[in-house]
Fold 5-bromo-4-chloroindolyl phosphate hydrolysis protein.
Amino acid sequence: MSKIIRTRKPSVLPFYAGALVFVVLCAVLPVYKLWALLVALGGAAAAFGLGQKFCPPHVVEHEVPFHTGQDDVDAMLTDIQQKLDTLHGLNASLPDPALSAAMDRMEKAGRSIVEAVEANPAKAKQVRRFANYYLPDAVNILQQYATLARQGVKGENAAAIRTEVEHNAASIATAFENQLDALYAAESMDLSADLTVLQNMLKGQGL
């Protein structure tokens, strides 16, 4: 999910004002004397302060796909999202219903993985292999399949490739879903433990 990031960018005018006043005072005062140098520095500081008052920092807004607070996680999630968008586009161009259904499962599991990691960036390390190998390889295979289908390539080899992709698509989708399920293993264990405690408490109260 894209987010708007706001950053405060200080104005350069206070710095210019301070420098200008310092240069002018240095030109008219005997700055080789300590008091004159202090006056010049004080004047520059006052000009800088006034500049900050009348020229406050301005807010710059820019949109980012993800903002978890960890740049490497944001980059990984952005890459996953781009590959899932590619997968979605490929799905729309392929007519085979069974393959399309498997690709729908891949995309759904992939986007759920993105949501889970965005909500809890500590989970990122659990999906590195998915992000770096499983998803890119799946997209690459399906891109090659789509190319063969689009070009109408005939022949025994092309037919064998298409059959193999169609046969294994469901297995790939299951692997994606297993990856998603693994992200919630700890939560499932905690929930199970909480339910056990609750059941024991209810039994202890005779309920």
